[in-house]
Amino acid sequence: MKFVRSLLLAGAVLATTQITAQAKELQISTWLPPTHSLHKQMEEWAKSVEEQTGGSLEVNIYPSSQLGAAPDHYDMVRDGIVEMSIAAPSLNAGRFPLWALIEVPFTFANTTTGARAFHEWYQEYIPTEMPDVKMCFITVHHPGALNFNKPDIRVPADLKGLRIRHGGPILSDWMTLLGATTVPSALPEVKELADRGVIDGVTLPWDMVLFGIHTAMPYHIDEPFYVGGQAWIINQAFYDGLTDKEREVIDAHCGPDYSEKLSTKWYEEQRGFRQQLIDDPKQHVYELTPEERKIWIEASAPISQKAEAEVTNKWKIDGAEAESKLRAKLKEHNALVE
Fold first, then answer.
1. Res 11: pLDDT
2. Residues of the chain where predicted confidence (pLDDT) is lower than 50
3. Which candidate, 86, 178, 249, 271, has a CA 20 to 30 Å from the CA of 265?
4. In this predicted structure, what is the pLDDT of residue 167?
């Protein structure tokens, strides 16, 4: 009996060793810190993928730009340096103008159903703009505030002469149009710039708290100025090389459903950070009057037109029609600013 048990144990060990040896590693690279909502959600995503593939896929997440700088994450996946990453297309100015329409000011009323709407809309344009990767899902942050190191910023004219860290090319154009000087930088660099006084303001959502940026930028206009989105992409060759079962599992963990699911949890957590700032006596969260808001919206019209023109110029498709389709999709999902 001992001999039989030994043989059974040896067989089990061998089987386990064989499974482990055959497991494919799916490396996910991000620039997010491990404390970030999306990182925590991706840990759950990874666990689910591993379980549903029976361990044939081993998912490892590398946060905090361990494997590469934030602007490089699209090319890292395209070139097979990593199997999956969070790409921020806005960090590659001019390269993804269709995606950049997400940044047109006063467009997204929420980023829960809004994330689903954007994914559904963008699917038509993936073959044009991101043909060499597999789109898994899209995350969109809570409509971003304008945050400053000084009080009394209420109308666009108040931005003249200020140095603003922007979140992408559309916002950069808008801030420049309004008389500000833009200071481009990746998210991990913003706190240092703020602490050193290199910038006077920053376009960021409420989870800026995670990076400590709010301590140097304690004045926040609470309006849906803009949103920023991230494309969670997979190397196409890696995906094509998976077994039918593995592809089935990956497909079940991708798509508009996941875009809404992850963005909704992120949205809810950011609402918590917003409340934290509201409750902090050292922070100042304020809304605009209806008249002030109208001035901001009117000031954004030229930026919408410019963004449409960039789509047309690069891809030879009607940029105004593409933006109109995006607004229609957002309205369909009750996520359009009106």
1. 44
2. 1-20
3. 249
4. 79
Amino acid (1-letter code) at residue 122: Y
pLDDT, position 185: 85
Q: Which residues lie below 8 Å from residue 259, measured CB to CB, with a gap of 6+?
A: 115, 116, 118, 119, 137, 138, 139, 140
The CA radius of gyration of the chain, in Å to the nearest whole number, is 22
pLDDT of residue 175: 96
Which residues, at least 6 apart from 33, have a Cβ–Cβ distance to it below 8 Å? 39, 63, 64, 210, 211
For tokens 């009106």, name the residue.
Answer: 338
Rounded to the nearest angstrom, the gap between the alpha carbon of residue 98 and the centroid of all alpha carbons in its chain is: 15
Domains of the chain listed by start with CATH number: 24-141+228-269 (3.40.190.170), 144-226+280-332 (3.40.190.170)
* pTM listed for this prediction: 0.88
The runs of H, that is alpha helices, within the chain are 2-22, 37-52, 73-78, 97-100, 113-122, 126-129, 169-177, 187-195, 236-240, 244-252, 256-279, 290-315, 319-332
